[in-house]
Amino acid sequence: MPTWGSPTVGNRRTDTIAGMSDWSPYITKTNGMAPRDTYVDAVERFDVPGDAIDLGYGAGNEVMDLLGRGWRVHAIDADPAAEAALRNRAADDAGLRISTMRLNDAPLSSADLIHAGSSLFFTDADRFDTLWGDIVDALNPGGRFVGNLLGPRDSWAGSSTVFSLTREQVESLLTGLEVESLREQDEAGRSMQGPKHWHAFHIIARKPA
């Protein structure tokens, strides 16, 4: 797997969601929202359900959708509030396994779908190469990764707790995978904390069969 090179890591401010230590308000506010569009596009490319991993599942909206479609899901998030919220929603669904740990420390079993919605850019930048290698290795042949990464023009890219990648670095990261969708978002928008500029890469990539 190619190394994509050093990410851009800011050190100027932590007054955005990127600097949050308590994610409970975010989980509460987003609980029950519709699954992300890119995730829906990816999951509907499968003919039958299989095994999925959700990295940084937050409120668990995509996890609940996967369970409803008959998938078996390993949901991983570092925040105990996320686990409490998901257990409240999923009850004792036999298809669900929950692990509360940092994504960098999570052992990944084989999976047909790995989803990481707005989570990977909060991991340790200096350990991301290893994490990405684990993600690619965990995908079964024909399996898909779906998620997003931040670009350098995103408002959060100035935070010390977030790293960003250029488009060239993202494309290098995806070498060896079949890129089914790579949409670059670069526009003014909003977050939980008000106006922000979004610069993100929304990815669907398939491991060759």
Molecular structure report:
The chain has a single domain, classed as Rossmann fold (3-Layer(aba) Sandwich), CATH 3.40.50.150. Helices cover 24% and strands 31% of the residues. It has six helices and nine strands; from the N terminus they run βααβαβαββαββαββ. The chain starts with 7 loop residues before the first strand and ends with a strand. The N terminus is likely disordered.
Helices and strands in order:
Layout: E1 8-9, H1 24-30, H2 37-43, E2 51-55, H3 61-68, E3 72-77, H4 80-90, E4 96-100, E5 111-116, H5 128-138, E6 139-150, E7 163-164, H6 167-173, E8 178-191, E9 194-206
Parallel strand pairs: 2-3, 2-5, 3-4, 5-6
Antiparallel strand pairs: 1-7, 6-9, 8-9
Organism: Stackebrandtia endophytica
InterPro entries: Methyltransf_12, SAM-dependent_MTases_sf
Protein name: Methyltransferase family protein
Produce a short descriptive summary.
Keywords: Methyltransferase, Transferase. The chain has helices spanning 24-30, 37-43, 61-68, 80-90, 128-138, 167-173, and strands at 8-9, 51-55, 72-77, 96-100, 111-116, 139-150, 163-164, 178-191, 194-206. The chain is α/β, with parallel strands linked by helices.
